[in-house]
Amino acid sequence: MPTDKRPGLTKRVLIDTALRLLDEVGLEGLTVRRLAAELGVRSPALYWHIRTKQELLDGMADAICRAPGMGPPRDDETWQDWLLRRARAYRAALLARRDGARVVAHARSLSHETVVLFERELAAMVERGFTPALALHTIAALTSYVNGFVLREQAAAAPESLDGAPAAPQSVDEAPAVLAAAVREGGGTIGGEAFEHGLRVFIAGTSAVLSQERDGPATASAAR
């Protein structure tokens, strides 16, 4: 029978259970009432540890963002290798959870520990020649790229589209000529190959911007 309190119930237990339940029922099915039932308590018992469902989502997103492979670069790691490793680890962490990208997209705040970890990432990039602003823009842009990419991957993998209608099948034979040729050559908008292409473009673009910032306005003017 559900109770108002349960020994050993902590915020960490709530988040871990919510992540497990997320894999079973998805974000739409994850409710405070369902989480309470899973834990064998009444809903009010959860509010000793979380004030709102948003706080629960923030905690879940925080746990996803601190997955293995995230965090600052190793001492001997270039910023290029680190960003590639970080992006791949982040994508894997999002894909490891049903609706993982949607959970992170709904987050409004992260824990103090994660903010400190992010500060260490920024400091490491500054040590590698970035300005603080460029370091922040770079990590934010890469994070947004991975989030958006995985949102599309997980939406494509869902049995139904977001409005509840079955996803329409697509045939290469019905596509325009150039698009059909691109698909036959292995091109695509989701999947590992498309993701890696985006990363290569991102690293190349970041290298160009970093060079311009290091060389100053003269190089930027010459490039134009």
From TrEMBL:
Residues 8-68 form the HTH tetR-type domain. The keyword DNA-binding applies. Gene3D superfamilies: Homeodomain-like (1.10.10.60), Tetracycline Repressor, domain 2 (1.10.357.10). Residues 31-50 bind DNA. It comes from Nonomuraea fuscirosea. One of its GO terms (molecular function) is DNA-binding transcription factor activity. InterPro entries: Homeodomain-like_sf, HTH-type_TetR-like_transc_reg, HTH_TetR, Repressor_TetR_C, Tet_transcr_reg_TetR, Tet_transcr_reg_TetR-rel_C_sf. This is TetR family transcriptional regulator.
